[in-house]
């Protein structure tokens, strides 16, 4: 088995501009961002997938097939082929649907896939394997490796789409390659996310969200001075999650796995904070998917952002002494407050009242002291991301943003079918150490042993093999599901 290599060269061999093959909108058609798009910020959201060497394709023909199918997919997702521009009247961003195209970079990494560090992603994916969206709504990179395997990385501007929309785009692309009808045709009518008249919202929303600029997002520094920049991947066994769920359940109420996981993580966070920091409380945030709750508006197939932030706060000393079930109840109550149609309609009205501008959850900005935000992508269907050359053997959510104002923990399923998770994190050194040294050993760093022996993947110097027909991560059922809490 190849050893981990932190220093490898990536050569960019070609750059392609792919446009929708049959543009379906008038030239220079513009789409305004919805009020919930304006809450999403401008960070890049990425997905990285690694594939074994195709049996009947060389790399050049593989890239050609990707370019052709992408052009057809953009016919249905035309905003991604446009550009984000500033409206001179409102001074707010909008989508110019001019079919200027998506950039697809072609590259070669002088390393075997089996030598990539899947634990320390800062020293692997950050090294020219994942593109940034920046001026383009979508960028894609296809990279070949010495072993014959390859990777595809997609990076999208969060202002255009949340995780569910991102997955919708990739699922549609896969269906087009397989000549299937689109199971979820995208709805680009952002006008359906409309405020009420008269506006109505709770002043408490001011406690969660603030107006922000792009410069603020780029230069986020947490109030505590913590360096929230370590990008790490962990594996959590299904049996450990079941045990946490048992500990977090009490009486007649059964905690969800997310609530139980949150309780454990919140407790570790509290225990990692030194008394010398003179911090009295810490917060936990949860991204809440709105498609499940916005029953008053038909948003099921909407391509855009439908997210809110639930926030809970607790005293550090009380967290250290509390039982798991008590902390899980705090998490449950916080999530419940943001899980309703009324909450999302209030949020839409609040943004309308405070426009023009862009907005962000305070907890993400680093103003709230030590905090962690949890994003659940437990329905992320990575196994279905077959673009004509098989399913991925490894995949993860990712971001190219260098550091955050709060810790980030993204959960996603493995493909083992036993309830186990892969967890992508952006944390600070003290918290990473606390998680890795906890005697319960819930967070296990992902390494070659855990990938090859525990997760059912075989990396060799010449190829990447799937053991027992299982991919590392993906939807555990054939039925498509949406990432949500």
UniProtKB/TrEMBL annotation:
Q: InterPro entries given for it? A: CAT-like_dom_sf, Plant_Fungal_Acyltransferase
Classification of source organism:
Eukaryota, Viridiplantae, Streptophyta, Embryophyta, Tracheophyta
The record's similarity note reads: Belongs to the plant acyltransferase family.
Query: One Pfam family for this entry, by name?
Result: Transferase
User: Could you tell me what this protein is called?
Assistant: Uncharacterized protein
Which one of the record's GO molecular function terms can you name? acyltransferase activity, transferring groups other than amino-acyl groups
């Amino acid at each position: 088995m190849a050893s981990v290599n932190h220093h490898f060269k990536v050569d960019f061999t070609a750059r392609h501009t792919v446009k929708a093959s049959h543009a379906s909108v008038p030239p220079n058609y513009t789409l305004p961002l919805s009020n919930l798009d304006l809450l999403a910020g401008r960070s890049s959201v990425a997905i990285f997938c690694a594939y074994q060497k195709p049996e009947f394709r060389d790399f050049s023909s593989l890239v050609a097939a990707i370019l052709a199918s992408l052009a057809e997919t953009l016919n249905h997702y035309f905003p991604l082929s446009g550009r984000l521009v500033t409206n001179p009247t409102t001074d707010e961003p909008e989508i110019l649907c001019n079919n200027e195209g998506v950039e697809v970079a072609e590259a070669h990494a002088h390393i075997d896939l089996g030598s990539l560090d899947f634990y320390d992603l800062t020293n692997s994916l950050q090294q020219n394997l994942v593109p940034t969206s920046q001026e383009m709504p979508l960028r894609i990179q296809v990279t070949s490796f010495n072993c014959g395997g390859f990777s595809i990385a997609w990076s999208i501007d969060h202002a255009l789409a949340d995780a569910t929309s991102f997955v919708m785009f990739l699922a549609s692309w896969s269906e087009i390659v397989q000549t299937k009808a689109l199971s979820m045709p995208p709805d680009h009518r952002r006008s359906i996310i409309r405020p009420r008249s008269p506006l109505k919202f709770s002043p408490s929303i001011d406690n969660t969200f603030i107006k922000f600029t792009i410069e603020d997002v780029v230069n986020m520094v947490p109030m505590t001075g913590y360096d929230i920049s370590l990008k790490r991947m962990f594996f959590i066994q299904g049996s450990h999650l079941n045990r946490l769920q048992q500990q977090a359940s009490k009486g007649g109420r059964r905690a969800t796995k997310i609530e139980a996981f949150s309780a454990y993580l919140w407790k570790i966070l509290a225990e990692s904070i030194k008394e010398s920091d003179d911090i009295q409380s810490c917060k936990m945030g949860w991204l809440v998917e709105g498609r499940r709750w916005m029953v008053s508006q038909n948003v099921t197939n909407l391509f855009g952002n439908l997210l809110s932030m639930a926030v809970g706060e607790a005293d550090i000393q009380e967290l250290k002494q509390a039982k798991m079930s008590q902390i899980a109840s705090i998490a449950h109550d916080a999530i419940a407050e943001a899980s309703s149609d009324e909450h999302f309609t209030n949020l839409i009205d609040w943004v309308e009242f405070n426009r023009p501008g862009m907005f962000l959850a305070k907890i993400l900005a680093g103003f709230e002291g030590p905090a962690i935000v949890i994003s659940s992508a437990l329905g992320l269907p990575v196994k279905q991301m077959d673009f004509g050359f098989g399913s991925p053997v490894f995949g993860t959510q990712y971001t190219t943003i260098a550091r955050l104002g709060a810790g980030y923990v993204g959960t996603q399923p493995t493909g083992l079918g036993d309830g186990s998770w892969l967890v992508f994190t952006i944390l600070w050194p003290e918290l990473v150490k606390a998680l890795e040294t906890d005697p319960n050993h819930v967070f296990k760093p992902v390494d070659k042993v855990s990938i090859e022996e525990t997760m059912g993947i075989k990396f060799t110097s010449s190829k990447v093999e799937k053991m027992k027909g299982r991919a590392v991560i993906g939807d555990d059922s054939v039925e498509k599901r949406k990432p949500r809490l």
